[in-house]
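2024-03-11 09:14:02 DEBUG pipeline.ingest accepted 1 chain
2024-03-11 09:14:02 DEBUG pipeline.ingest length=766
2024-03-11 09:14:03 DEBUG pipeline.predict start
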Amino acid sequence: MAREMAELEGRVTLRPWRLGLLVDTSSATDVREAIAKLSSVWGGIWMPILDVRSSIQSIEATGELYDVDALYSEVTDGLVGELLRKPGWRWEGRASFGAFGGDFGLRRGLLPLKALLRSGLDFAMPTWAAGHPDDLLLTATFGLAESLDAPLDEAADGRAVVGLGYLAAKIPPPTVIGALELGQMYLSVVNRRYLKNWGGIHILRGGAIEDVLEFWNARAFGSPLIALPAERTEGNLVEFLLRRGLPTLEPYRSMDGAESVSELPVWGLTDAGSEVQAIIRAAAGERGLSVAERPRGHREVRGFSGVRTSIQSSVRAETRPSSRAAYITLPRLPIREDDSVIEAGIVAAEVTWQSSDALDPRLSPRLPPHRRHSALVAHALATDGVEHVRVSVSGVVLGLDAHRDRVRVPLGNTLEAFRLLFDDADVEVSQSEVGLFQARAAERFGGPFSGFFSQPAARAALETTASRVEGITMPHLVQTVQSQRGGWPHPVMEPHVTPSAYATRVVHNLLFSGVFVPTTRVHCSHCRVQTRVSSDDLASRMQCEFCGEVFDLALSHALTKPEWRYRLAAHLRSDQVQALLPALAASSFLAQLRHTEEPPMPLVLGLQVEVDGRSIEVDVAAYIPDTEWITVLGEVKTGNRIDIHDVDNLVYLRERLARSGVRCILMFATLKDGFSPEEVATLRGLAERSHPTWDSMGRLVPNLPLTLTGLDLSHHPMDESHPWRWAGMQYAGLYGTAVESCRRNLGLTSCELSGSEVPPSLSWGD
């Protein structure tokens, strides 16, 4: 039944809006100014400094690696300017002051640090003399006092500007030292073991801008790093920097497995003077660590792991099913209250939807995390205080003022989400007539992910009813469900549900959908013609369709005993139902592959793609977010044969998506118990010419077709035989499930990879 309101549930997190700052990195002045700007805003320590002279491809790749929310540069012309205006990279900048400015309490730039300077904070801002030999190191370690743009008075509230010598000698030291440390308030980097393994000490050679940039950008990934000068200069600065925190590697077992070893990695150790080296080794020895030299520039990072903050909350929103947005309440960021401030500055509200119910299938709360898909949520800009918006791996990220307590979260168009996957303005997509029918039919049974048609009994009941023009009786319906129930109810998950009770439950669910129309026989007392009439058309006095006379329903029932039957609404044809059932069984299967708090996936039934002069229809198209980040294109059948034409069409789309950097797996499903010999030969041929691909974790994996039979699509999600529980899979994730499906359904006996440029070596059983 149609729902008046849709419901969405998820989480919202407030964090800094992270920029990638583009400057001329060959200029010490520009680099110092960039550090000063980033050290003036909340979370600036995790914002990278990029070279504006790099190629556009390099800038984009680095921006993706750091997962920045936008790129920013004072240079706005040429190719760089074009990049800065693209969806997902653009700093909207509705104020003339840019990302780091504001005026008279009307801050349109990033949230400044002075908003975090609350009374009583034990904070000290170091200063040093102009022309200090380690000026860039100190700037990259502490930030600059002028970046705070706020007076500091030790006598008033414990905040002060102090010299380095005083600071190094003060015991105990202040709780928070420097603007960069203040900018980490309420924040921490998501813990990742590999980030700790890239932590340690970075030696900065005097005047070497490249060392400062490498240190800054390595730390911006979240690695626990500190910088030390190559030569000892002022007082006991080196000892003080070491005393503030000594990053270490995670302990690990030595080669013989006999002991646990901890190391202190040092980048550029040989560039350090003997005195600094001695201090480092002494500090490491006091903590039982061994010093390990690391080569400069050698870091294989996997990407920014995210900022953790306690400023988050669960959210639940109700909206009209066809509404393009949902309103949520935001948690409050504890910033300094100031009546003169109208807008405090921009922060990011990261919204992750974890479930949706009764939402129009034309809308998707979760979109592919490609930058170009940010255009689908751009309609949120300049509404309810939203200044910036983009999509990310976590969901939708909104840039808004830190004072906002409520926001309108945009939803994306599902069809457009699939069109943008091709990254080609000439590609057109639509939903076929069959797909439109299937989408509406799915809503009547709880949506395409409800899992209802994973039950063979439900499919059998619908198919049997469709094959009877006059419908079937209730006993026939119950008997069909009970005899075709397969492994349902599950003996472990539903041990107390009898087959009879299960059949009654399924029949009730079918009737509740509103798809079944009750009809009964009526008998004209004048011409004796019998006809079947739906319950809506019954009346105490009725007119005969044949002779036109009016007769009494009571007399009709006296002449002919009433018999209730159930037919499908709108007299759905058998071929329509046969096309519907495998599509809904396959979409339910895709949903069952995901078992924790999973975001809703974009799905289109009957996706019509117009590309390169070809018109291709995809029975089931889905984008699986979260850990897989993969597009699934499926051809599904009830009894018809999958042929080479079906295969070639989907292969063509897979190749087009690969050119746009989109992972894609092809799914072929049938409701038959197995594939025919001709289908097996066709699908084996596809497997043998499918090149390997890289999964979301950077692993090389075979990209074999996902082949599913009626038995595979008919298991309870917790059944040991369900594909997601298949044992002994050679590869992880959906790619591994596809390989195992070929083994079980196509006779695959071995699969060996020889690199990414050639198809895998496959062996088949007889």
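2024-03-11 09:14:41 DEBUG pipeline.report DSSP finds 21 helices and 40 strands in the chain.
2024-03-11 09:14:41 DEBUG pipeline.predict end
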